[in-house]
Amino acid sequence: DPKAAHDHNHDEKELEKYKPEINEEFLKTVGTFKDVADFRQKIRENLGKEKEHRLLEKRRGKILERLIAETSFPIPQPLINYELNRMLGQFEEDVRRLGLSVDNYLIQVKKTREDIQKEWLPEAEKRARINLILEEIASKEKIEADPKDVQEEVRRLKERHADIDAIQAESYIAHVLTIEKAIKFLES
Q1: What distance lies between CA 155 and its chain's CA centroid?
Q2: Which helix (H) or strand (E) holds 75?
Q3: pLDDT over 90 at 1, yes or no
Q4: Structure pTM?
Q5: Whole-angstrom Cα distance, residue 12 to residue 115?
Q6: N-terminal to C-terminal alpha carbon distance within the chain
Q7: Looking at residue 161, what is its pLDDT?
């Protein structure tokens, strides 16, 4: 469509007006870079890491999907509810981080928390199943989180959330790091 192509080119030209010139002054506003060459090098490194991360996530996704496909056992409802609550908590935190009220957001999208939980039920079941499988693998393979790593993560968490319950945080982080090690075990 020639009109769409023209509009796109027009939009590109408009955006060019606002594109900052990458010079020493601009670098002072975005971080600590030695010079323009250093800035460009860091951008290339970050893009490389991002690509690597996406490939890793894709590989992990395939491993976890295969685990789900090859197992069938009933998932206790409390574990599914736990995953649903975690997902809802993360969703609410994300919405608040955008500077929005969760209730207003729900009104705008014409949904209730119950609607969202119903939609997310299959994903919550999947997460609960994966967790159980990985916990079993960790147990069988004697995989445990490194206590030093756990303490370091708890310390970081307390810096951001001073009122957090340290014992619960330690237990949760130990679980997360153990699951991470179990996934790495499967990858290798």
Answers
A1: 20
A2: none
A3: no
A4: 0.63
A5: 40
A6: 49
A7: 79
